[in-house]
Amino acid sequence: MKVNYDSKTDTLTIVFTDTLVAESDEDKPGVILDYDNKGNLVSLEILDASRRVSVPSKIEYQVSPLVG
Q1: This prediction's pTM
Q2: What is the span of the domain harbouring residue 29?
Q3: CA dihedral 28, 64, 18, 30 (to 10 degrees)
């Protein structure tokens, strides 16, 4: 997974897998979802990120412990 915040364009992009994008859908205004040819979510792009995310340049990452 890759996370990129571009302050010049104020765009936050989260790429889940390096797969070719077959289709994009703007689910809500300013939120673009990219899908591969099988319909799997490939990436998420948030436009005007500084208005939608509290601190787009700060990333917190957490892995939950396996249960079972």
Answers
A1: 0.81
A2: 2-52
A3: 10
